[in-house]
Amino acid sequence: MTTDTTDPYDSISPVSTVPVEEVPTNTTVPPDSVTPDRAAPPAGAVHPKPGSGKKWFLTILIGLLLVFGLIAAAYYFSHDEQRGVTVIRMEGTMVTGQVSDADSIGSEVVGRELRNAADDPMVEAIVLRVNSPGGTPAAAQEIIRDLDYAKSKKPVVVSMGDMGTSAAYYVSSHADRIYANPDTFTAGIGVIWKFSDISRWMDKEGLNISVVKSGSKKDMGTTSRPISDEEQEYAQKIVNESFENFITDVITHRPIARSDIDDGRVIRGGDAIGLHIVDEIGNLNDAISGAKTLAESRR
User: Fold this and answer.
1) Which of 7, 23, 196, 246 lies 20 to 30 Å (CA to CA) from residue 115?
2) Structural domain for 296, as ranges
3) Which helix (H) or strand (E) segment is 101 a member of?
4) Is the pLDDT of residue 119 over 80?
């Protein structure tokens, strides 16, 4: 093995010196006047151009935006709700409030969804999927206000499932178009108020209830006694007024003859077409297609 005794620094050319005046030994050079040595860049190093980092950042940002745009487009074209039509479900007995379970649906739940869809710029039309036997007049009236708000902004189409009767039809009559299946139960226009009387069973069991009330009708409807003739007359008055409001509103929004629906019977979807109670025979997909067509016609 050969030992190399050459000083590695011998390859560096000696630095030529320039004579300078001799500095007195008692003169101190201020520290600030000394220029620090600057490290030389490694051989072959590439100097980044000014602004190149910003260009790379913009390139990456644009790439990410394109990727997210493609994902959003794919989602948009693969989901019915994002293709311009949203489906809102009104299933169960209609009541006021925020109830939403297997048996009941609250007016605030349906109303909120209707308004949100109406205000959503991605939604061009709304399909209200109805599967309800009806409910309280007040619940229907609350939903109708929100449906009318939605209809003022974009088409609203109803698709009936098993049934859309009574107060559920009350709501449906305000839509731009109604779809039903051939054997969907619909119509059932009417108002009913039921009273139960278990007083005879109570007498048999030896049960007795004492009531202290401020007015003669304050305990009207209690199960511990039958209603009086005066209460029966008063109850009929309320039912008649509610029914008149109901049927007048329906025939105002639909070209239906009053005599065809004022007996309160339910009507098959197939028969309802001829009475103008529904507009089309079809399922939910047909209603969605119809809603899209309505939206396109209004552009």
Assistant:
1) 246
2) 76-188+265-299
3) none
4) yes
